[in-house]
Amino acid sequence: MKLFQTLLDRRRFLQSSAVVGATAGAVGVTGLTGLAQAPQARAQTPRGETVVTKSICAQCPARCGIDVYTTDGRVHAIYGDTGNPIANGKLCPKGHLGSYFLYDPDRFKGPMKRTNPEKGRDEDPGFVPISWDEALDMVAERLNGLRERGESHRFAHFYGRGWGASDAGLYGDFGKLYGTPNSAIGHASMCAEGSKRAKRATDGNDSYNSYDYRNTNYLLIMGASFLEAFRPYNNVMQMWGHMRSKSPKTRVTCVDVRMNPTMAAADRALYIKPGTDGAFALAVAHVILTEALWDKEFVGDFYQASRRFVSGESIPEDSFEENWVHGLTEWWNQELKDRTPEWAEAITSIPARHIRQTAIEFGSTRPAVALFERGPTGHTNGTYNGMAIHALNALVGSLFAKGGLGYQMGVPYGDLPVSADDYLDDYARDGAWKDQPRIDMAGTERWPMTSHMMQETGPNHLAGDPYKLDTAMFFYTNPIWTAPDPKVWEEAFKDVFIIDTSPFPGETAMYADLILPDSTYLERLQDSPTYPFEGWPMTALRVPAVEPIYDTRHFGDILIGIGKRLNGPAGEYYRALDSVENVLRHRAAGFADNPGDNGVNDFESWKEKGVWYKKPYHWRLDRGRFYEWGGLDYDLQMSPEEVKAKLFKTPSGKFEFKSGFLEEHAAYIETEMGIPRERVGLIQWVEPQHSGGDGDLYFVTPKTPLHAEGRGANVPHNIAIHQPIVGGRDTVYLEVHPRTAQERGIRNGDRVRITSDLGSIEAECRFVAGHRPDTLVLPFEFGHWAQGRWAKGRGPGHSGEITANVSDPISGLASYYTGKVRLERA
Ligand SMILES: Nc1nc2c(c(=O)[nH]1)N[C@H]1C(S)=C(S)[C@@H](COP(=O)(O)OP(=O)(O)OC[C@H]3O[C@@H](n4cnc5c(=O)[nH]c(N)nc54)[C@H](O)[C@@H]3O)O[C@H]1N2
Ligand SMILES: Nc1nc2c(c(=O)[nH]1)N[C@H]1C(S)=C(S)[C@@H](COP(=O)(O)OP(=O)(O)OC[C@H]3O[C@@H](n4cnc5c(=O)[nH]c(N)nc54)[C@H](O)[C@@H]3O)O[C@H]1N2
Ligand code: SF4
Ligand SMILES: [Mo]
To answer: Is the domain of 463 the same as that of 588?
Structure first.
């Protein structure tokens, strides 16, 4: 009966499609006599032109170049751009699904204002449509009013995934012209700020690294999810293929707390106790020195050839001649001499012989690279962990070396048509706002070494300390859901006028008083300078594949539109700046003197090719000397002054095992971390402070390949693809070691409760024997209570709700991976 019904339905479908074909003028199927009979071949109706537009995927920070296929105004395919050096014609599975963002049925379709004054998870905002003029006037009126009352600091901009000159790049001037220290507060401290600060502290570059994977022969991966998330994801997967098939094959040791694809694919997988990576790295450094495996040309050597590093024994002052490093003698004598593999075993739980083997391999295979990301840095001791790992790159001479790591070069953009400095009024120059700290207290005595502390904003506003915000505008960030302990934000933002620019109904949008929807990435013109990649400069362009299909605008144009309505010279500045397109045309003018390798030399050719880039990387360390590219080769030797200005931007101009940057903040670090003032500069072992009270299990919430930060949850295909692995629509698998579960009377498939001192969430238990028994794994991005029909209600397991707001005092990075929890049957 069911089969018969299906046949009938199918027949009706074929009949109706024949009718459609006929009305469209197709040569004809005149009748259907049976299902077995195939319709006659018919000529293809002309269906309009297919246009291929160059753009950039927006789902993760990899920034892959894409070819967007549009026919008759509809985007129907997205492929990797073969001319884009990151994508090389390939995409990760998410990239192909980008049209879901464009055609998301839950998108905001135009500006709207809230009519329900009550805010909360269960409150319907009661959004009603308004015009753009009305909306922008409303914002300008608020901002002008605040300024007149001398309270402009109570306006804050927040951003997450900024792209470049045409959006987040506009913030600095806005703050300066309008007069607020809060333009803008970025999400870096909720992202991966720890690795940047560890590099700042050791080699002076506050930045992610670029890597020369093509020529690397050894990779030590510590707490970076290389085959699931590490940036640029699609490209590092391609590089993995290259490294593992080239000759010699790149050997890989992976250190993580759970079985992940990188651990599974590595030559050696080491399970580390969460938060203890610093101890492991110090022991590796110890062995590299005692086994005399360090790079003598980069690091330096003993004056007396017979001297060596012996475990537990100091070396005499002035016995070691340092070349490009600073503080090695003190580091060894005051810290490293006792950091043996046996010492580290007791802390990390990794057997000493594995530490020793890793060290010997790492120290004797050139070039070797140690890389890390949120694993080691997502703890209170994150910066020190990161510094210890990065020190290994210095010991083997990998910084700026072939097959080693460097830093991404900037793009030679042209100047803006106007300069903000010419449009400052007295208030902008020295109004009362100048005495106000940022609402997140970044860069103040509370968080002196940080540049952003977004996670502090909710709590600070709630406490009215340093003040109460009046108005907050959000771009590409959703802290009411992604921040640690987001319930505090829900409470805090009830009395703030919220403007959200997300095209999608995320949690922050549910608290908004005004929705000014950005266009989706396939509809907007936007630049995107490349960050962590191969080092040479590159910037790609998003060219709209279609005109906005609803009444939305590019965020940059929204910002400029608000600016145009500001009173005084600020308004004049924005009228002169005009539009995002004008900004980008002026930026692209910089290519005239610097044509890219693909011939891009102006705005039009940039649009056509979608990317400007220029190889090679400019600097090279070779046998202990630094060179600049001279046009044909690395043949311009650099002076120590040049190295200090361009490469090692530390007080000493060298790689610092004793950090001048940390020493500048010695009193703060002593108070916050209990490290004696005279020792703070040393790369050293610091115990992590785990949150979670009496919890007996560690809890990590990593990213999966089908997740796009916190904003990819409303793509049904993504859900379908990873459903078997991470859980279904209504359940989320909590991955638990079987022994851990059995000890608590939990069976595979049971509903379980995970509890921290903030509360509990539930999930479905799934046995994964590959994880550490003391560590629970719950993928991030579940448990949305908004964000669209497919995202919503896939809970209740949002890991953020049981993640305490605790941060590394140095980098400010939220310690997402440091919480302890309890587990029981629900
Ligand atoms: N697919 C995908 N890719 C992405 C993103 C995305 O959302 N989806 N987001 C991008 C963003 S914003 C970022 S910040 C990057 C993040 O890139 P990563 O930092 O590489 O990603 P995480 O998932 O945070 O993974 C860190 C790894 O650390 C491990 N870990 C946790 N605690 C410890 C520890 O104490 N020690 C060690 N050794 N390991 C530990 C986790 O198990 C995990 O495997 O990814 C980017 N790429
Ligand atoms: N428990 C736990 N929490 C985490 C993490 C974790 O691993 N575990 N990871 C952390 C990390 S690394 C990061 S980077 C943060 C990310 O956290 P956020 O900075 O909050 O970024 P997203 O979650 O990506 O949120 C982006 C917002 O942008 C909106 N959006 C999507 N597309 C567009 C667009 O085209 N234009 C505009 N204007 N808006 C858009 C979305 O609707 C959403 O509201 O989360 C952090 N939170
Ligand atoms: S790696 Fe990131 S940018 Fe590239 S296709 Fe995948 S989601 Fe898009
Ligand atoms: Mo991030």
So the answer is: yes
Residue 37: inside a domain? no
The pLDDT mean for the chain works out to 93
Query: What is the Å distance from ligand 1's center to 706 Cα?
Result: 13
Ligand 3 pocket mutation, candidates 67, 84, 231, 234, criterion most atoms within 8 A of CB:
234
Distance CA 394, CA 391 (A): 5
Pair 720, 821 in one domain: yes
- Centroid of ligand 3 to alpha carbon of 715 (angstroms): 14
C-alpha 360 to ligand 1 mean position (Å): 27
In the predicted structure, residue 233 carries a pLDDT above the cut 70: yes
Measured between alpha carbons, how far is 735 from 726 in angstroms, rounded to an integer?
A: 9
Assess whether 392 and 426 both reside in one domain.
no
Q: For residues 824 and 696, give the distance between their C-alpha atoms in angstroms, rounded to a whole number.
A: 12
Which CATH number characterizes residue 382's domain? 3.40.228.10
- Of ligand 3's listed atoms, the one at least distance from the Cα of 56 is 3
Domain that holds residue 255: 209-407
Q: Does residue 101's CB lie within 6 angstroms of at least one atom of ligand 3?
A: no
Same-domain pairing of 781 and 817? yes
Cβ-contact 496, 469 below 8 angstroms: yes
The answer to whether residues 307 and 328 touch, using CB atoms and an 8 Å cutoff, is no
Residue among 246, 180, 202, 270 nearest 682 (CA): 202
Same domain, 355 and 275: yes
482 CB under 6 A from ligand 1? Answer: no
How much distance in Å is there from the Cα of 306 to the middle of ligand 2?
56
Token pair belonging to 443: 């860069």
Ligand 2 atom 18: residue of nearest CA = 477
Residue 352 and residue 290 share a domain: yes
Is 90 exceeded by the pLDDT of residue 680? yes
Query: Where on the phi/psi map is residue 754: left (φ > 0), alpha (ψ -120 to 50), or beta?
Result: beta
For residue 29, is pLDDT > 80? no
Closest listed ligand to the CA of 92: 3
Domain of 429, CATH number, reads 3.40.50.740
**C-alpha of residue 476 to centroid of ligand 2, in Å:** 7
Does residue 229's CB lie within 6 angstroms of at least one atom of ligand 3?
A: no
Provide the 8-state DSSP code for 264: H
For 105, the token pair is: 């049925």
Centre of ligand 4 from the C-alpha of residue 703, in Å: 9
Ligand 2 pocket list (CB less than 6 A) = 58, 160-161, 187, 190-192, 475-479, 482, 501-504, 506, 508, 518, 520-521, 555, 701, 703, 709-711, 780, 799-800, 803, 816
Q: 477, 526, 580, 792: which to mutate for ligand 2, most atoms within 8 A of CB?
A: 477
Taking the CB of residue 148, how many other CB atoms lie within 10 A of it? 11
What integer pLDDT is reported at residue 727 of this predicted model?
77
Q: Which residues pair with 542 in a beta bridge?
A: 526
Count H helices and E strands in the chain, helices first.
Answer: 28, 32
| Rg over CA atoms, the chain | 28
202: alpha, beta or left? (left if phi > 0; alpha if psi -120 to 50): alpha
* Chain centroid offset of residue 790 CA: 24
> Looking at the 3D structure of the chain, how many domains does it have?
4
Strand segments (E) across 512-654: 514-515, 526-529, 538-542, 611-613, 619-622, 625-629, 634-637
563, 580, 613: which is the final residue of a domain? 613
User: Which tens digits make up the pLDDT trace of 734-785?
Assistant: 999 999 999 999 999 999 999 999 999 999 999 999 999 999 999 888 889 9
Does residue 204 sit within a domain? no
Please give the biggest Cα pair distance in the chain. Answer: 98
**For residue 798, which atom of ligand 2 is closest to its CA?**
1
Taking the centre of ligand 1 as the mean of its atom positions, its distance from the CA of residue 538, in whole angstroms, is 24
